[in-house]
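Table S2 (continued). Query chain:
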Amino acid sequence: MRPANEPDLMRLYLRHCAVGFALAAAFVAMLLWFNVANLGYLVTHTDVGYLAVFLLWFFHGTIFGSVQFAVSLMLNAEKDDEGPRGGTPVAVRVPSETPRRI
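Corresponding output:
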């Protein structure tokens, strides 16, 4: 049984992965359009350019989707109200002994 306020994690994960892959598509399109590091020329003038574009999109989508999901989970975290808060720090002297060298 799941509490009513707990999000459906699989739906949340898939939604943020889709957003990450959409952002990755836009990012790779801008990389190729602005010809960053001459990628646009390399992709269009080789026979396996489609593979390079797919790999760029896939790996960037994996990264962006993971970041989207992680940020979403961290923003949904509950704040811990347990434990001491505030107060004034007090300096404590801690004696230490070193072994004698012969």
